[in-house]
Structure formats: C-alpha cells, structure tokens
Specification:
With 236 residues, this protein is mainly beta. The protein has one domain: Acetoacetate decarboxylase-like (Beta Barrel).
C-alpha cells in the first residue's frame, strides 16, 4: 500500500511549483507488456494483477527555484502531460516511471539532463462551464490527444484511488544510470470525472498494445505546495 501523504520531507527543493486542474486516466495492462518498457533494476508495480499506465494532463504553475517567491510576476504557467507507469526498485521502494512527457514550456527541456523524457508540444488546457478540456500534439500531429472531462463530487479515496495517484518519487535514466527524484506535496483532493471525449495516440507511440479494460478516471483541482528534490543516482 502506498502512502496517502508524502513519504519524506524535501527539505532543500531543487524546484517548487503548483500542479493544477489535473486529470488522471488509468488503464490496466498485462504486466509483461509494461515491463518490456522499463530499464534494468526496476520492476513493474501491480494492482489486482495488472500493471497500470496513467495519462495525466495538468497545468504547471509558479515554477521556480528555491528562494523565489510564488508571487513573482514572471513565473511561467503552462500545460504538461505525462504518460507514466508505476514501478518498484529491488528494495521495494515504489515510484513513477515516465514513458513520455509533453510540455508547452521550452525551459522544462532542461530536465532532459536527468533523463526526464520531455518533448516540446502544442498543449492547451481550457474550461467551458463544468467541462475541462485538454488537447496536445507533437511531431506535426503524429502523436496527439484530446480529453474532455466533467469533474464530479469530491470523494473519499479508496485504496485503489490512492495507489493510482499518490507516488512520492520519480525514476529516470541517464547514461545508463537510474536516478531517483523525491517529491513532496499535500495529498491529492480527488473527485470522480465523467469522460465526454478521450482520443489519444500516446500509448501506441511508446509501444503499448490495447489496454485490458476501460479507464479509471479521477480529477483533482490540484496541489499547491509541490517540492521536487535533487535527483540522485541509484545504480552505477
């Protein structure tokens, strides 16, 4: 069982931000299909016998290094979308593995230095009444998505809800070395969400087959106190 609240304090963050208007779309896959996309040293995590892949578009706001106040007028706000799965190290520590990351801000491409698979794209997040819409594309539209959701009432998270949404470290790989980046923020406030439109080619682009079942969908207005720690190598 993963922790609902952060598992560790990030006392000296490398980056601070807010993650807003985030939708979590999760599909179950056969574990062997997802394991084939992972580097040595990481094992696919499972829930109810399945590996889960999450498509998570959101707004990244007030991105800043330590010491810069959130009120600074020049801080960027932009759309980002992650395609991710959940993994464990050999010692059992769980975390996120990113299959792809689309972003609308060129500054974030600097995270490629630690192996984060950022790709610049044309991304938008809009609201119209009670509908939140996400669109994105890269590579002249060869990889794209559109998602329209209507958030529902707040919910008390179940064990599966927490398992799907709450992870406190991310793993990346650079020059053959796996790196761990710790994350701290308040627990996600979650709601259900009705999906009006869901079209995407992200999963096929990374080599995944069709999922085993329909997606599980959550919406969150976001978390406002995100602290990302420095990345550190795990294996040599």
């Amino acid at each position: 069982m993963v922790a609902y609240g952060a598992e560790q304090r990030v006392r000296v963050p490398a980056l601070r931000a807010r993650w807003l208007r985030q939708t979590f779309v999760h599909w179950p896959f056969r574990p062997e299909d997802v394991q084939a996309l992972l580097p040595p040293g990481l094992v696919v995590d499972q829930y109810d016998g399945a590996a889960w892949v999450g498509f998570t578009p959101f707004v990244m706001a007030d991105v800043r290094p330590p010491g810069v106040p959130a009120s600074a007028p020049w801080l960027p706000t932009f759309a980002e979308t992650n395609l991710r799965t959940y993994v464990r190290r050999e010692d059992g520590r769980d975390g996120i593995w990113f299959l792809s990351i689309e972003v609308a801000c060129p500054l974030m491409l600097a995270a490629r230095a630690v192996g984060a698979p950022y790709t610049l794209g044309d991304l938008r997040v809009t609201t119209d009444g009670d509908t939140v819409s996400y669109t994105g594309s890269r590579g002249a539209g060869r990889v794209s998505y559109r998602l329209d959701v209507r958030p529902g009432e707040p919910l008390q998270p179940t064990e599966r809800d927490v398992w799907l949404t709450s992870r406190w470290r991310a793993y990346t790989r650079q020059l053959g070395v796996v790196l761990e980046t710790p994350v701290e923020h308040e627990p996600w406030p979650l709601a259900g969400a009705a999906v009006d439109v869901l079209e995407e080619t992200l999963t096929a682009a990374v080599g995944l087959p069709a999922p085993l079942d329909e997606p599980v969908v959550h919406y969150s207005p976001g978390v406002r106190h995100v602290r990302l720690g420095p990345s550190r190598p795990l294996f040599t």
